[in-house]
Amino acid sequence: MRIRALVVAATGAVALSALAVPAAQAAPAAPAGPAVTFSNMKINGGKNIVVGPTSKVTVSATYTVTKPAALKASSFITGPGLYRGATVDPDSNQKILSGDNEGTCTAVAGSSTVLKCKATIQLRPKPNDVNEQLTNADAGTWKIAAIAVDTTTFGFTTQGNLGTTKVQRQSKLTTDATPEPVKKGKTITVTGKLSRANWDTYKFAGYSTQPVKLQFKKTGATAWSTVKTIKTSSTGALKTTVKASADGYFRYVFAGTTTTPAVNSAADFIDVK
């Protein structure tokens, strides 16, 4: 069950109980959450999270929970989440990217207070839970949080600022060098396209006005050399010309941005006569 679902149940229960209290009395306070703290949170092994235009992506999370010795591990559940803003607040309309299931925790040998935990987070471009569906505006940096929920009272404890990660729109890059074969000294035209996942339309779309390097590697060489840098068109298209000098391979290389990962195209061989 999603952690958010438990929080909604908890806050809903508090709201219903408040309605039953006479107006002259104070509304009941929300139940306190487990007295735990989180540390050592790592999402996706510390790597950026890259999501395509349609498919769900599941990433791993590992973290440490420290609890009072008297608090039973079986009395609460935990899970990680990604959020934006100054604080994390599941009891609101704040967008939180979380997991379909709670984390699993194991006691550290010889300790009554430390648990080592693991969980997963699911990211979806296509509709599922409206509050957690990715849109293009979601690409970029997210803060990392964790939550613990008391399984009896549904009181919850949150802790934010456990690190950051980037959620990025998957990129693709192509290269096509023509004509082939070509005479030495003649003009080679190298075309291509830089595109990235569009989470609003569930397709790939051109990434405009981005600097992309054209690189060449002579047959038998081990290293690539940069020939020039050009920018993509308004549709993500690439086109430039070079003089044929020797047999070898051309490729385009994109360094990436905060919202879009770096990508190299496949190499395209050119036969120079």
UniProtKB/TrEMBL annotation:
Designated name of the protein: Calcium-binding protein
Where does the signal peptide begin and end?
Answer: 1-20
Keywords associated with the record: Signal
Organism whose genome encodes this protein? Streptomyces vulcanius
